[in-house]
Design brief:
Blueprint (H helix, E strand, L loop, with lengths): L10 E8 L2 E10 L8 E5 L12 H9 L2 E5 L20 H17 L3 H4 L2 E5 L1 H12 L6 E5 L7 H16 L2 H5 L6 H12 L20 E6 L8 H9 L3 E6 L6 H4 L1 H16 L17 E4 L1
Parallel strand pairs: 3-4, 3-5, 5-6, 6-7, 7-8, 8-9
Antiparallel strand pairs: 1-2, 2-4
Helix pairs in contact: 1-10, 2-4, 5-7
Length: 295
């Protein structure tokens, strides 16, 4: 299959009823036999997909010793493409967190009250993970958010404008076609909404105080799409936040610093997962303050 994930895990498709119609959602299970270990759900970036992660989810699950669930959101990878006439709404990440993810978990048989899944979210996927934890604070066991967005910075918009020019004038479209059945669906869905003037007011900081689970927020000093203000803002509002700030790292820590990142995530999950047991419901206790790590 074009765009098949390099970890060679079997690709599945779920029928997910959401936003008034049924969507075909690509997903992959990693190490499903590890039933007594945490479930780590991978939420990709604005141009990502199951295949675009390459081997990182499998490598991270091995480092953590957990199960994994990797999906391509609607409009990405081999999932149902976005119709050409439709634009993502400004609150698309809110909708993905509040409405799509519960529908997806139900379709693939994840009982979130029993599983208390963990999330690894990259960029837009990190924002969706934060929103999910804010809307459903009793559900997640923990979050790892890499290069997430909590408000719109001028730097982000400038880089997305540059990406738009590159999509039209360079080989970017053909490169994305290796990972998406419909690269135009993936690219323009993301690019159009981020460059919508109304999106400049998008801001989720007021919701972050509802997050109860531990959060590891990761940012590279060389990230062309955001500054440290993004993860510092999480630490100011979500009380169980730890920060990992990485040198020699751009927007994709899993590509630029994979070994260091895997060690940090494994240690983070080990510190917190033993407090969560399958079948437990209710929220973990709050702790005050944030731990900052600079690497």
């Amino acid at each position: 299959m074009n765009g098949a994930p390099e970890n060679a895990a079997q690709v599945h498709f779920a029928r997910v009823r959401w936003s008034g119609r049924e969507h075909r959602i690509e997903h992959v299970w990693l190490h499903p036999a590890r039933t007594r270990r945490p479930l780590l759900v991978f939420l990709h970036e604005g141009l990502g997909s199951v295949a675009m992660w390459k081997d990182f989810p499998a490598q991270l699950c091995d480092a953590v010793g957990c199960r994994g669930l990797v999906l391509s959101r609607w409009g990405y990878g081999q999932s149902s493409p976005r119709p050409g006439h439709e634009r993502w709404p400004v609150d698309f990440m809110h909708q993905q967190a509040r409405d799509f993810l519960p529908a997806f978990f139900e379709a693939v048989g994840v009982d979130v009250a029993r599983e208390r899944p963990w999330f690894y979210g990259h960029s837009d996927g990190g924002s969706i993970a934060l929103l999910y934890a804010a809307f459903y604070p009793e559900v997640p066991g923990g979050l790892i958010v890499a290069a997430p967005h909590i408000f719109v910075e001028d730097k982000t918009v400038a880089s997305i404008e540059k990406a738009r020019d590159g999509y039209v004038t360079t080989s970017l479209r053909s490169k994305l076609a290796r990972y998406h059945a419909d690269p135009d669906s993936a690219f323009w869905g993301w690019n159009d909404v981020w460059l919508d003037p109304d999106f400049r007011r998008w801001d989720i900081r007021s919701l972050l105080g509802s997050i109860r689970c531990p959060v590891l927020a990761v940012q590279g000093y060389d990230d062309e799409y955001g500054t440290m203000a993004q993860i510092d803002g999480i630490a100011e509002r979500a009380p169980r936040t730890e920060l990992l700030k990485l040198h020699d790292c751009g927007h994709s820590p899993h590509r630029d610093q994979p070994a260091l990142l895997a060690r940090a995530v494994a240690a983070f999950v080990q510190r917190h997962a033993h407090h969560e047991t399958p079948g437990r419901t209710g929220a973990p206790p709050h702790t005050n303050g944030a731990t900052r790590r600079h690497t």
